[in-house]
Protein backbone atom coordinates (compact mmCIF):
# COMPACT_ATOMS: atom_id res chain seq x y z
CA UNK A 1 0.00 0.00 0.00
CA UNK A 2 1.40 3.39 -1.08
CA UNK A 3 -0.04 6.42 0.68
CA UNK A 4 1.42 9.91 0.77
CA UNK A 5 0.07 12.37 3.32
CA UNK A 6 -0.17 15.82 1.74
CA UNK A 7 -1.74 17.63 4.70
CA UNK A 8 -2.73 16.79 8.25
CA UNK A 9 -4.26 19.54 10.35
CA UNK A 10 -6.70 20.06 13.18
CA UNK A 11 -9.82 21.95 12.07
CA UNK A 12 -11.28 24.04 14.88
CA UNK A 13 -14.78 25.55 15.05
CA UNK A 14 -15.09 28.81 13.10
CA UNK A 15 -16.53 30.59 16.13
CA UNK A 16 -16.28 30.35 19.89
CA UNK A 17 -18.29 27.37 21.15
CA UNK A 18 -19.62 26.52 24.62
CA UNK A 19 -16.78 25.37 26.89
CA UNK A 20 -18.81 22.80 28.76
CA UNK A 21 -18.53 19.20 29.88
CA UNK A 22 -21.21 16.85 28.53
CA UNK A 23 -22.01 13.72 30.48
CA UNK A 24 -22.55 10.53 28.51
CA UNK A 25 -25.67 8.43 28.96
CA UNK A 26 -25.60 4.71 29.67
CA UNK A 27 -26.59 4.14 26.03
CA UNK A 28 -23.52 6.11 24.96
CA UNK A 29 -21.37 3.77 27.05
CA UNK A 30 -22.72 0.36 26.03
CA UNK A 31 -19.82 -0.18 23.63
CA UNK A 32 -17.06 0.70 26.06
CA UNK A 33 -13.71 1.19 24.38
CA UNK A 34 -11.55 4.26 23.81
CA UNK A 35 -10.89 3.15 20.23
CA UNK A 36 -14.48 2.64 19.15
CA UNK A 37 -14.61 4.94 16.15
CA UNK A 38 -17.35 4.17 13.64
CA UNK A 39 -15.99 4.49 10.10
CA UNK A 40 -17.70 5.27 6.84
CA UNK A 41 -16.34 6.04 3.39
CA UNK A 42 -17.61 7.27 0.03
CA UNK A 43 -15.89 6.37 -3.23
CA UNK A 44 -16.31 8.68 -6.23
CA UNK A 45 -15.36 8.16 -9.83
CA UNK A 46 -13.09 10.85 -11.33
CA UNK A 47 -15.22 14.01 -11.24
CA UNK A 48 -15.81 16.29 -14.18
CA UNK A 49 -13.16 19.05 -14.33
CA UNK A 50 -15.82 21.63 -13.54
CA UNK A 51 -16.82 19.84 -10.32
CA UNK A 52 -13.52 19.11 -8.62
CA UNK A 53 -13.38 18.69 -4.86
CA UNK A 54 -12.22 21.95 -3.33
CA UNK A 55 -10.06 21.39 -0.25
CA UNK A 56 -10.34 24.91 1.11
CA UNK A 57 -14.11 24.83 0.81
CA UNK A 58 -14.17 21.49 2.60
CA UNK A 59 -12.05 22.76 5.48
CA UNK A 60 -14.15 25.90 5.76
CA UNK A 61 -17.37 23.86 5.76
CA UNK A 62 -16.04 21.54 8.46
CA UNK A 63 -14.99 24.50 10.58
CA UNK A 64 -18.44 26.04 10.20
CA UNK A 65 -20.32 22.85 10.97
CA UNK A 66 -18.23 22.24 14.11
CA UNK A 67 -19.76 25.39 15.56
CA UNK A 68 -23.04 23.49 15.73
CA UNK A 69 -21.63 20.00 16.33
CA UNK A 70 -19.14 21.36 18.86
CA UNK A 71 -18.81 18.15 20.95
CA UNK A 72 -16.99 16.63 17.95
CA UNK A 73 -14.26 19.24 18.40
CA UNK A 74 -13.77 18.17 22.02
CA UNK A 75 -12.08 15.25 23.71
CA UNK A 76 -13.08 12.43 26.04
CA UNK A 77 -11.95 12.42 29.63
CA UNK A 78 -12.72 10.23 32.62
CA UNK A 79 -14.85 11.45 35.49
CA UNK A 80 -13.12 9.95 38.56
CA UNK A 81 -16.27 10.29 40.64
CA UNK A 82 -18.32 7.73 38.71
CA UNK A 83 -15.85 6.07 36.31
CA UNK A 84 -17.75 7.41 33.30
CA UNK A 85 -16.37 9.17 30.28
CA UNK A 86 -17.48 12.73 29.59
CA UNK A 87 -16.98 15.00 26.59
CA UNK A 88 -14.77 17.96 27.34
CA UNK A 89 -15.98 20.50 24.76
CA UNK A 90 -12.54 22.05 24.52
CA UNK A 91 -12.72 23.22 20.91
CA UNK A 92 -9.44 21.45 20.05
CA UNK A 93 -10.83 20.45 16.69
CA UNK A 94 -11.33 17.54 14.32
CA UNK A 95 -8.50 15.88 12.42
CA UNK A 96 -8.49 16.57 8.67
CA UNK A 97 -6.10 14.71 6.36
CA UNK A 98 -5.46 14.87 2.63
CA UNK A 99 -3.56 12.04 1.01
CA UNK A 100 -2.60 10.60 -2.36
CA UNK A 101 -2.20 6.96 -3.33
CA UNK A 102 -0.67 5.25 -6.31
CA UNK A 103 -3.61 2.83 -6.32
CA UNK A 104 -6.53 3.09 -8.72
CA UNK A 105 -10.17 2.39 -7.86
CA UNK A 106 -9.98 -0.77 -9.92
CA UNK A 107 -7.42 -2.21 -7.47
CA UNK A 108 -10.08 -2.62 -4.78
CA UNK A 109 -12.93 -4.34 -6.60
CA UNK A 110 -16.10 -3.85 -4.55
CA UNK A 111 -14.25 -2.17 -1.66
CA UNK A 112 -15.04 -4.82 0.95
CA UNK A 113 -14.17 -3.84 4.56
CA UNK A 114 -10.79 -4.63 6.10
CA UNK A 115 -7.85 -3.08 7.94
CA UNK A 116 -5.94 -2.31 4.72
CA UNK A 117 -8.84 -0.25 3.39
CA UNK A 118 -9.09 1.57 6.71
CA UNK A 119 -5.40 2.45 6.59
CA UNK A 120 -5.86 3.87 3.10
CA UNK A 121 -8.97 6.03 3.60
CA UNK A 122 -9.24 6.77 7.35
CA UNK A 123 -6.69 8.88 9.29
CA UNK A 124 -4.34 6.89 11.49
CA UNK A 125 -4.95 7.36 15.21
CA UNK A 126 -2.58 6.50 18.05
CA UNK A 127 -4.83 4.89 20.65
CA UNK A 128 -1.87 4.14 22.92
CA UNK A 129 -1.61 7.76 24.02
CA UNK A 130 -3.62 9.69 26.56
CA UNK A 131 -7.40 9.54 26.23
CA UNK A 132 -7.51 13.30 25.77
CA UNK A 133 -5.28 13.11 22.70
CA UNK A 134 -7.75 11.10 20.61
CA UNK A 135 -9.83 13.19 18.16
CA UNK A 136 -13.53 12.37 18.30
CA UNK A 137 -13.95 13.13 14.60
CA UNK A 138 -11.47 12.36 11.83
CA UNK A 139 -11.88 12.94 8.12
CA UNK A 140 -9.68 12.13 5.15
CA UNK A 141 -9.70 12.95 1.45
CA UNK A 142 -7.77 10.35 -0.54
CA UNK A 143 -6.98 10.99 -4.21
CA UNK A 144 -6.39 7.91 -6.37
CA UNK A 145 -4.00 7.75 -9.31
CA UNK A 146 -6.93 7.30 -11.71
CA UNK A 147 -8.52 10.54 -10.54
CA UNK A 148 -11.05 8.85 -8.27
CA UNK A 149 -11.69 10.16 -4.79
CA UNK A 150 -12.50 8.74 -1.39
CA UNK A 151 -13.94 10.75 1.48
CA UNK A 152 -13.68 8.84 4.74
CA UNK A 153 -14.87 9.69 8.24
CA UNK A 154 -14.36 8.18 11.69
CA UNK A 155 -16.69 9.23 14.51
CA UNK A 156 -16.17 8.07 18.09
CA UNK A 157 -19.06 5.80 19.08
CA UNK A 158 -19.21 7.19 22.62
CA UNK A 159 -20.26 10.49 21.06
CA UNK A 160 -22.91 9.36 18.59
CA UNK A 161 -24.44 6.41 16.77
CA UNK A 162 -24.92 5.74 13.05
CA UNK A 163 -28.09 7.81 12.72
CA UNK A 164 -26.37 10.81 14.31
CA UNK A 165 -23.41 10.30 12.00
CA UNK A 166 -25.86 10.57 9.11
CA UNK A 167 -27.23 13.79 10.61
CA UNK A 168 -23.70 15.24 10.73
CA UNK A 169 -22.79 14.16 7.20
CA UNK A 170 -25.98 15.62 5.77
CA UNK A 171 -25.31 18.95 7.48
CA UNK A 172 -21.69 18.96 6.30
CA UNK A 173 -22.42 18.35 2.64
CA UNK A 174 -25.19 21.00 2.65
CA UNK A 175 -22.79 23.59 4.06
CA UNK A 176 -20.02 22.47 1.67
CA UNK A 177 -22.35 23.16 -1.24
CA UNK A 178 -22.91 26.72 -0.06
CA UNK A 179 -26.20 26.52 1.80
CA UNK A 180 -27.10 27.44 5.37
CA UNK A 181 -26.85 24.91 8.18
CA UNK A 182 -30.06 22.86 7.72
CA UNK A 183 -30.57 22.07 11.42
CA UNK A 184 -29.14 22.65 14.85
CA UNK A 185 -28.27 19.45 16.74
CA UNK A 186 -29.53 19.06 20.29
CA UNK A 187 -26.81 18.07 22.75
CA UNK A 188 -28.88 17.80 25.96
CA UNK A 189 -28.23 14.09 26.43
CA UNK A 190 -28.89 13.71 30.12
CA UNK A 191 -32.13 15.66 29.91
CA UNK A 192 -33.58 13.52 27.14
CA UNK A 193 -32.05 10.20 28.05
CA UNK A 194 -31.51 10.75 31.81
CA UNK A 195 -14.95 -15.72 23.68
CA UNK A 196 -12.18 -16.97 21.93
CA UNK A 197 -8.89 -15.53 20.67
CA UNK A 198 -8.58 -16.33 16.98
CA UNK A 199 -7.94 -14.73 13.61
CA UNK A 200 -11.02 -13.10 12.14
CA UNK A 201 -11.95 -12.21 8.60
CA UNK A 202 -14.13 -9.41 7.29
CA UNK A 203 -16.08 -10.03 4.11
CA UNK A 204 -18.68 -8.37 1.93
CA UNK A 205 -21.56 -10.35 0.42
CA UNK A 206 -23.99 -8.94 -2.12
CA UNK A 207 -27.63 -9.90 -2.51
CA UNK A 208 -29.67 -8.92 -5.54
CA UNK A 209 -33.32 -7.91 -5.32
CA UNK A 210 -34.18 -11.30 -6.80
CA UNK A 211 -32.25 -13.17 -4.09
CA UNK A 212 -33.86 -11.06 -1.36
CA UNK A 213 -37.32 -11.67 -2.79
CA UNK A 214 -36.61 -15.42 -2.95
CA UNK A 215 -35.82 -15.43 0.78
CA UNK A 216 -38.91 -13.39 1.61
CA UNK A 217 -41.09 -15.67 -0.51
CA UNK A 218 -39.61 -18.72 1.22
CA UNK A 219 -40.47 -17.31 4.64
CA UNK A 220 -43.96 -16.17 3.66
CA UNK A 221 -44.91 -19.36 1.82
CA UNK A 222 -44.05 -21.46 4.88
CA UNK A 223 -46.08 -19.43 7.38
CA UNK A 224 -48.62 -21.47 9.31
CA UNK A 225 -52.22 -20.28 9.49
CA UNK A 226 -51.80 -18.63 12.90
CA UNK A 227 -49.04 -16.41 11.47
CA UNK A 228 -50.55 -15.52 8.07
CA UNK A 229 -51.28 -11.94 9.16
CA UNK A 230 -47.67 -11.20 10.08
CA UNK A 231 -45.86 -8.88 7.67
CA UNK A 232 -42.20 -9.81 7.74
CA UNK A 233 -39.83 -6.96 6.89
CA UNK A 234 -36.76 -7.31 4.69
CA UNK A 235 -34.57 -6.80 7.77
CA UNK A 236 -36.35 -9.57 9.70
CA UNK A 237 -36.06 -12.07 6.86
CA UNK A 238 -32.42 -11.30 6.05
CA UNK A 239 -31.43 -11.27 9.73
CA UNK A 240 -33.03 -14.68 10.21
CA UNK A 241 -31.11 -15.96 7.20
CA UNK A 242 -27.81 -14.47 8.45
CA UNK A 243 -28.37 -15.97 11.91
CA UNK A 244 -29.10 -19.42 10.50
CA UNK A 245 -26.09 -19.30 8.17
CA UNK A 246 -23.84 -18.19 11.04
CA UNK A 247 -24.98 -20.97 13.36
CA UNK A 248 -24.36 -23.56 10.65
CA UNK A 249 -20.93 -22.14 9.88
CA UNK A 250 -19.88 -22.07 13.55
CA UNK A 251 -20.86 -25.74 13.98
CA UNK A 252 -22.27 -25.07 17.45
CA UNK A 253 -23.64 -27.71 19.82
CA UNK A 254 -27.30 -28.24 19.01
CA UNK A 255 -28.48 -27.75 22.59
CA UNK A 256 -26.60 -24.46 23.00
CA UNK A 257 -28.66 -21.30 23.39
CA UNK A 258 -27.47 -18.36 21.31
CA UNK A 259 -28.51 -14.73 21.22
CA UNK A 260 -29.25 -12.37 18.37
CA UNK A 261 -28.78 -8.69 19.25
CA UNK A 262 -31.03 -6.33 17.29
CA UNK A 263 -30.20 -2.58 17.42
CA UNK A 264 -33.36 -0.48 17.46
CA UNK A 265 -33.45 3.31 16.96
CA UNK A 266 -35.48 4.77 19.82
CA UNK A 267 -36.05 8.10 18.08
CA UNK A 268 -39.33 6.92 16.57
CA UNK A 269 -40.64 5.31 19.76
CA UNK A 270 -39.87 7.81 22.52
CA UNK A 271 -42.79 10.25 22.42
CA UNK A 272 -43.46 11.35 26.00
CA UNK A 273 -41.47 13.48 25.89
CA UNK A 274 -40.27 13.11 22.33
CA UNK A 275 -36.70 13.74 21.26
CA UNK A 276 -36.00 16.75 19.04
CA UNK A 277 -35.50 15.89 15.37
CA UNK A 278 -32.00 17.36 15.77
CA UNK A 279 -31.04 15.20 18.77
CA UNK A 280 -27.37 14.24 18.41
CA UNK A 281 -26.19 11.23 20.39
CA UNK A 282 -26.82 7.51 20.88
CA UNK A 283 -30.45 6.40 20.99
CA UNK A 284 -29.79 2.75 20.20
CA UNK A 285 -31.57 0.10 22.24
CA UNK A 286 -30.88 -3.60 21.87
CA UNK A 287 -33.57 -6.20 21.61
CA UNK A 288 -32.40 -9.76 22.22
CA UNK A 289 -33.77 -12.90 20.58
CA UNK A 290 -32.63 -16.19 22.17
CA UNK A 291 -33.03 -19.63 20.59
CA UNK A 292 -31.38 -23.01 20.75
CA UNK A 293 -29.10 -23.87 17.85
CA UNK A 294 -31.16 -26.94 16.93
CA UNK A 295 -34.26 -24.76 16.50
CA UNK A 296 -32.40 -22.28 14.30
CA UNK A 297 -30.93 -24.97 12.08
CA UNK A 298 -33.76 -27.50 11.80
CA UNK A 299 -37.02 -25.62 12.27
CA UNK A 300 -38.66 -24.03 9.22
CA UNK A 301 -37.25 -20.71 8.06
CA UNK A 302 -40.50 -18.89 8.84
CA UNK A 303 -40.13 -19.85 12.51
CA UNK A 304 -36.80 -18.00 12.88
CA UNK A 305 -38.07 -15.00 10.90
CA UNK A 306 -41.15 -14.67 13.12
CA UNK A 307 -38.99 -14.84 16.28
CA UNK A 308 -36.89 -11.98 14.91
CA UNK A 309 -40.11 -10.15 14.06
CA UNK A 310 -41.38 -10.56 17.64
CA UNK A 311 -38.09 -9.23 19.05
CA UNK A 312 -38.29 -6.16 16.82
CA UNK A 313 -41.94 -5.51 17.67
CA UNK A 314 -41.18 -5.75 21.37
CA UNK A 315 -39.14 -2.56 21.08
CA UNK A 316 -42.10 -0.55 19.75
CA UNK A 317 -43.16 -0.02 23.37
CA UNK A 318 -42.12 3.35 24.80
CA UNK A 319 -42.63 2.19 28.38
CA UNK A 320 -40.25 -0.71 27.71
CA UNK A 321 -37.57 1.72 26.47
CA UNK A 322 -38.08 4.15 29.34
CA UNK A 323 -37.81 1.32 31.85
CA UNK A 324 -34.57 0.22 30.15
CA UNK A 325 -33.15 3.71 30.65
CA UNK A 326 -34.25 3.68 34.32
CA UNK A 327 -32.67 0.28 34.81
CA UNK A 328 -29.34 1.29 33.28
CA UNK A 329 -29.17 4.40 35.47
CA UNK A 330 -29.73 2.40 38.65
CA UNK A 331 -26.89 0.00 37.92
CA UNK A 332 -23.63 0.79 39.74
CA UNK A 333 -20.87 1.92 37.40
CA UNK A 334 -21.16 1.40 33.66
CA UNK A 335 -23.24 -1.10 31.66
CA UNK A 336 -21.55 -4.39 30.93
CA UNK A 337 -19.74 -3.96 27.60
CA UNK A 338 -21.56 -5.73 24.80
CA UNK A 339 -18.40 -7.27 23.39
CA UNK A 340 -17.13 -8.84 26.62
CA UNK A 341 -13.47 -9.13 27.52
CA UNK A 342 -12.45 -10.24 24.05
CA UNK A 343 -13.41 -8.57 20.81
CA UNK A 344 -15.83 -11.29 19.88
CA UNK A 345 -19.55 -11.93 20.32
CA UNK A 346 -19.12 -15.67 19.78
CA UNK A 347 -21.45 -17.59 19.82
CA UNK A 348 -23.84 -14.65 19.49
CA UNK A 349 -24.55 -12.28 16.60
CA UNK A 350 -25.49 -8.64 16.04
CA UNK A 351 -27.07 -7.51 12.77
CA UNK A 352 -27.15 -3.75 12.27
CA UNK A 353 -29.01 -2.11 9.40
CA UNK A 354 -27.82 0.96 7.51
CA UNK A 355 -30.14 0.04 4.63
CA UNK A 356 -32.51 2.96 5.18
CA UNK A 357 -29.80 5.59 5.66
CA UNK A 358 -29.64 7.62 2.40
CA UNK A 359 -25.89 7.20 2.06
CA UNK A 360 -26.23 6.86 -1.71
CA UNK A 361 -27.33 10.53 -1.86
CA UNK A 362 -24.08 11.93 -0.42
CA UNK A 363 -23.38 14.34 -3.27
CA UNK A 364 -20.73 16.97 -2.50
CA UNK A 365 -21.24 18.58 -5.88
CA UNK A 366 -19.37 16.21 -8.16
CA UNK A 367 -21.72 13.27 -8.38
CA UNK A 368 -23.07 10.45 -6.28
CA UNK A 369 -20.68 7.99 -4.60
CA UNK A 370 -19.53 4.96 -6.55
CA UNK A 371 -19.83 2.93 -3.36
CA UNK A 372 -19.70 3.33 0.42
CA UNK A 373 -19.61 1.24 3.57
CA UNK A 374 -17.98 0.50 6.92
CA UNK A 375 -14.18 0.48 6.64
CA UNK A 376 -13.26 -1.88 9.46
CA UNK A 377 -15.54 -4.09 11.59
CA UNK A 378 -13.46 -4.79 14.68
CA UNK A 379 -15.91 -7.03 16.55
CA UNK A 380 -16.33 -10.68 15.56
CA UNK A 381 -20.01 -11.47 15.21
CA UNK A 382 -20.92 -7.91 14.17
CA UNK A 383 -22.53 -7.31 10.79
CA UNK A 384 -24.07 -4.48 8.76
CA UNK A 385 -26.74 -4.50 6.09
CA UNK A 386 -25.92 -1.69 3.65
CA UNK A 387 -27.90 -0.33 0.72
CA UNK A 388 -26.51 -0.36 -2.80
CA UNK A 389 -24.99 2.80 -4.34
CA UNK A 390 -28.13 3.19 -6.45
CA UNK A 391 -30.33 2.93 -3.37
CA UNK A 392 -32.67 0.36 -4.94
CA UNK A 393 -30.67 -2.56 -6.33
CA UNK A 394 -30.23 -5.15 -3.62
CA UNK A 395 -28.28 -5.00 -0.37
CA UNK A 396 -24.80 -5.87 0.85
CA UNK A 397 -23.81 -7.64 4.05
CA UNK A 398 -20.52 -6.69 5.69
CA UNK A 399 -19.63 -9.15 8.45
CA UNK A 400 -16.73 -10.16 10.70
CA UNK A 401 -16.40 -13.83 11.66
CA UNK A 402 -13.59 -16.12 12.71
CA UNK A 403 -11.50 -16.95 9.68
CA UNK A 404 -12.17 -20.66 9.99
CA UNK A 405 -15.93 -20.08 9.77
CA UNK A 406 -16.10 -17.67 6.84
CA UNK A 407 -15.93 -20.17 3.92
CA UNK A 408 -18.76 -22.23 5.41
CA UNK A 409 -20.78 -19.09 6.11
CA UNK A 410 -20.49 -17.99 2.48
CA UNK A 411 -21.68 -21.41 1.31
CA UNK A 412 -24.72 -21.43 3.59
CA UNK A 413 -25.48 -17.76 2.95
CA UNK A 414 -25.92 -18.26 -0.79
CA UNK A 415 -27.28 -21.82 -0.94
CA UNK A 416 -30.94 -20.87 -0.35
CA UNK A 417 -31.05 -17.56 -2.20
CA UNK A 418 -31.10 -18.88 -5.75
Plain-language structure description:
The chain is an alpha+beta fold and 418 residues long. The protein is built from 10 helices and 15 strands. It has helices at 55-68, 115-121, 162-176, 189-192, 209-222, 234-250, 293-298, 301-314, 318-330, 406-415, and strands at residues 3-11, 21-23, 37-44, 75-79, 84-88, 94-101, 137-143, 149-156, 200-207, 257-265, 284-292, 349-353, 371-373, 382-387, 395-402. The chain has a 6-stranded mixed beta sheet with strand order 1-6-7-8-3-13. The protein has a 6-stranded mixed beta sheet with strand order 9-15-14-12-10-11. It has a 3-stranded antiparallel beta sheet with strand order 2-5-4, with no helix packed on it. A hairpin with a 5-residue loop joins strand 7 and strand 8. The longest helix has 17 residues, at 234-250. The model has no long low-confidence stretch (mean pLDDT 87).
Strand order of the largest sheet: 1-6-7-8-3-13
Run of helices and strands: EEEHEEEHEEHHEHHEEHHHEEEEH
Task: Tell how many strands the DSSP assignment holds.
Answer: 15
Count of alpha and pi helical runs: 10
Give short descriptive properties of this protein:
six-stranded mixed sheet, 10 helices, 27% helix
Provide a compact summary of the structure.
This protein is α+β, with helices and mostly antiparallel strands.
Q: Topology of this protein?
A:
Blueprint: E1 3-11, E2 21-23, E3 37-44, H1 55-68, E4 75-79, E5 84-88, E6 94-101, H2 115-121, E7 137-143, E8 149-156, H3 162-176, H4 189-192, E9 200-207, H5 209-222, H6 234-250, E10 257-265, E11 284-292, H7 293-298, H8 301-314, H9 318-330, E12 349-353, E13 371-373, E14 382-387, E15 395-402, H10 406-415
Parallel strand pairs: 6-7, 10-12, 12-14
Antiparallel strand pairs: 1-6, 2-5, 3-8, 3-13, 4-5, 7-8, 9-15, 10-11, 14-15
Helix pairs in contact: 1-3, 5-6, 5-8, 6-8, 6-10
Amino acid sequence: MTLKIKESIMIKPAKETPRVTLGLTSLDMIIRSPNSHTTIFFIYNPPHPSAKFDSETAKKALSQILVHFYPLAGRLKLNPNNDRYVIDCSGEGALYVEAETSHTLADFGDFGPGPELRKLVIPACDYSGELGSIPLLMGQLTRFKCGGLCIGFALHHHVADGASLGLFLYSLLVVYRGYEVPLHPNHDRIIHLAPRDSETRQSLFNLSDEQINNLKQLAISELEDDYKNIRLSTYEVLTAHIWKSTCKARDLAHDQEVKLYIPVDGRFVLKNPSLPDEYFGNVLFFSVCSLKVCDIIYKPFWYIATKVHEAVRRMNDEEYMRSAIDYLETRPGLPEPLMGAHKSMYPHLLVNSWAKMPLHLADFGFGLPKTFGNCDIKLEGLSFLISSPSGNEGLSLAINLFDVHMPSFEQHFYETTT
